[in-house]
UniProtKB/TrEMBL annotation:
Gene Ontology BP term (one): AMP salvage
Subunit structure, interactors included: Homodimer.
Keyword Glycosyltransferase: yes
Keywords tagged on the record: Cytoplasm, Glycosyltransferase, Purine salvage, Transferase
Family under the similarity heading: Belongs to the purine/pyrimidine phosphoribosyltransferase family.
Cellular localisation: Cytoplasm
Originating species: Parasphingopyxis lamellibrachiae
Source domain of life: Bacteria
Name by which UniProt lists this protein: Adenine phosphoribosyltransferase
EC number(s) per entry: 2.4.2.7
């Protein structure tokens, strides 16, 4: 985690934990309480902007909460925003990446012409758990010809292995806060 837990304790305190949602045993990390706090939300964007490593051409926000942070960060950095969505949500011609879930499969899509070859893309989402969705987004973006070397998250659940999975794919991972044991 970048910046250390102490520096971001203020943000962690704004994230509500809802036990047993969406099923028993899950500790849901709810960012809506963070978004309700204007200073907290602004601080997330400022701190994420400071974590960006090198120049980027665009930010890829993963549906749906990645759009929130991706859009705010894109404005802060003066870059474009690529929407990475669930299947069937984008009009026009799209590129698709299927991926496995613990209970089945899903797909991500982006417009086929969203990024030029070689574009440097920063991947953004609110939470990193097992990394399945983020890894699929990286494959989708790279399949379109993008260079994806960095990802940023508000929350990492390190015990679920998503950060290690992305690092194995050659993507650096940084998060503002971590919640152990989830």
């Amino acid at each position: 985690m970048s910046g250390g837990a102490e520096r971001n304790a203020d943000l962690k305190a704004l994230i509500r934990t809802i036990p047993d949602f969406p099923k028993p045993g899950i500790q849901f990390r709810d960012i809506t309480t963070l978004l309700l706090d204007p200073g907290g939300f602004a601080t997330v964007v400022e701190r994420m902007a400071a974590m960006v490593d090198g120049p980027i051409d665009a930010i890829a926000g993963v549906e749906a909460r990645g759009f929130i942070f991706g859009a705010a960060l894109a404005r802060e950095l003066g870059s474009g925003l690529v929407l990475v969505r669930k299947r069937g949500k984008l009009p026009g011609k799209t590129l698709t990446e299927d991926y496995a879930l613990e209970y089945g499969s899903d797909s991500l899509e982006m417009h086929h012409d969203a990024i030029p070859q070689g574009a440097r893309i920063l991947l953004i989402d609110d939470l990193l758990a097992t990394g399945g969705t983020a890894h699929a987004a990286v494959r989708l973006l790279r399949g379109a010809g993008a260079s994806v070397g960095q990802s940023l998250f508000v929350i990492d659940l390190p015990d679920l292995g998503g950060a290690a999975r992305l690092r194995e794919a050659g993507v650096s991972v940084e998060a503002l806060v971590e919640f152990e044991g989830d």
